[in-house]
Amino acid sequence: MAWIYLVLAGITEVFWATMMKLSVGFSKGTYTILTILGMIVSFVLLAKATKVLPLSLAYPIWTGIGALGAIIIGVIFFGDKLNPLTWIFTILLLVSIIGIKLTSGN
């Protein structure tokens, strides 16, 4: 169950980061509220995951899911342009997250 909490925490991190972008510097009330709610949910889920999983495993995976998700959302929905070298490092980030999980023994 801890892994499910961790993945959901990462997904909600992507959600709140996206809402923060849409809040335009916290100037749009609805998106600001969604940002704060998303943060709370993400942190609560991360806390539940770290009850079982070690912090040295859970935190980098949580931030990695958030980083990869933010890249994908940025490219697809906000028209962010990444150069080929950035894509290579993005792939390396994904490989690193998978590697951490596979070698953790959890």
TrEMBL record:
The keyword rRNA processing does not apply. One of its GO terms (cellular component) is plasma membrane. The chain crosses the membrane at residues 29-47, 59-79, 85-103. InterPro entries: EmrE-like (IPR037185), Small_drug/metabolite_transptr (IPR000390), Small_multidrug_res (IPR045324). It comes from the Bacteria. It is a multi-pass membrane protein. Keywords: Cell membrane, Membrane, Transmembrane, Transmembrane helix, Transport. One of its GO terms (molecular function) is transmembrane transporter activity. It is found in: Cell membrane. Belongs to the drug/metabolite transporter (DMT) superfamily. Small multidrug resistance (SMR) (TC 2.A.7.1) family. This is QacE family quaternary ammonium compound efflux SMR transporter.
